[in-house]
Amino acid sequence: MLKNIARALVMTALLGLPLSASARTGVVRGSYVNLRSDSRFNSPIIGRKMRGDSYRVIFEDKKWLKVVFDDKTEGWLYQTSTELAPDTPPEPAPVVASASAETDKKAEAAKAAEAAKAAKAAEKAAKAGKTDKSEKTEKTPDKASAGKKTEDEKAADKKAADAKAAEAKAAEAAQKTAKLAKPIPASVVEVSGSAEELYNEAIRLYEKKQYVQALDKNMQAIKKAPQNAEILNNIGNCQFKLGKIDEALESWKAALKISPRSGKISNNLGIAYYQLDKNKDAVEFYKKAILFEPDFPDPYYNLASVYGFTGKFADAIMNYRKFLEFSPDTTMKKLAEERIAYCERQLPKAAKKTSQ
């Protein structure tokens, strides 16, 4: 029971994505957001702003925002769906093939059917012609033309050959139509748009809890930017939400190789290991996350959860209190305080067991 509760809490700690801004002001609502030096996707990160930091929008360049935070730090943020205007129209449902493509398929199928019908009619006529001529030849044999084909026989042979060719062509056309009728997986369709656009669309889908579609967009984006740790991290997020813990683990490992000092990715790896009941590995990566980014609050809470589950109540209390120093929202504050109270009640029991 205790571990199920802890797991539910940990799953809520997966890192969010860049957060919303109004027309002129905004506040960071996720764990943190990267502030970049320029309006380019892979421009250097000049700082990370934590949950609750307020900023003002001073310039907009397409989907990029030039912002200034309360501490006068200026930089660029890339808009996500929560940063778009609230009256942005909903996205249309994805379409596998256009209407014109479907019409072309039907037309081609109709042509193939007509060709096959014509071929059968021609073949039937050719057979009838052959039979009729054979009967006439038997009744009135011509010595001068013995052993030679008459003009009618040659014409019949030509009709039969044409019929076979038409039938083969019709079969080939029908086969091609059948292939076209099969839906093409999105993963093999030619990807359109830049990595930034695909990344941003994946974020919108993720926030709508459309994890399958978000994963597909992220997979398209990584083809265009194979060394982008943020995209790989988001792939892991989608896989985790879909219950593919082992796949998420591999995606986060790949992301950490590219960005080896990322607190966000290290924290996610800790979550994956905890879900796989590998508490020792979970503790290791939560500690790495704290080491790499000591101002990142989530790994303190997650580390405390593991300590509480494994009976290290003093360590759990210490990390819950560190988490509270970051002034979390009301819900998380209440949860942390409840966990501290629980661990404090367990301390005397743990001490008694140790002394025995």
Distance linking N and C termini: 26 Å
Strand content: 5-15%
Q: Summarize the amount of helix as a percent range.
A: 55-70%
Q: Main β-sheet, in a few words?
A: 4 strands, antiparallel
Q: CATH homologous superfamily of the domain at 18-79 - what is it?
A: SH3 Domains
Q: What structural class do the secondary elements suggest?
A: alpha+beta
Q: Count every beta strand, where a strand is a DSSP E run of 2 or more residues.
A: 6
The shape, in one word, is: elongated
Order of helices and strands: HEEEEEEHHHHHHHHHHH
The stretches of 5 or more residues where confidence is low (pLDDT under 50) are 8-23, 81-109, 130-148, 177-191
How would you state the average pLDDT, rounded?
Answer: 74
- CATH-derived architecture of the domain at 18-79: Roll
CATH topology of the domain at 18-79: SH3 type barrels
Lateral strand order in the biggest sheet: 1-4-5-6
CATH domain class name of the domain at 18-79: Mainly Beta
Roughly how many Å is the radius of gyration? 34 Å
Please, how many helices?
12
Summarize, please.
This protein has helices at residues 2-11, 99-139, 151-181, 195-207, 211-224, 229-241, 245-258, 263-275, 279-292, 298-309, 313-324, 330-355, and strands spanning 25-27, 32-36, 45-50, 54-61, 64-69, 74-78. The protein is an alpha+beta fold. The strands form two sheets. A four-stranded antiparallel sheet has the order 1-4-5-6, with no helix packed on it.
Question: Can you put this structure into words, describing what you see?
Answer:
This protein has about 350 residues and is α+β, with helices and mostly antiparallel strands. The protein has a domain at about 20-80: SH3 Domains (SH3 type barrels), CATH 2.30.30.40. It has 12 helices and 6 strands. The chain has helices at about 1-10, 100-140, 150-180, 195-205, 210-225, 230-240, 245-260, 265-275, 280-290, 300-310, 315-325, 330-355, and strands at about 25, 30-35, 45-50, 55-60, 65-70, 75-80. The strands form 2 sheets. Strands 1-4-5-6 form a 4-stranded antiparallel β-sheet, with no helix packed on it. α7 runs antiparallel to α8, α9 (about 280-290) packs antiparallel against α10 (about 300-310) and α11 (about 315-325) runs antiparallel to α12.
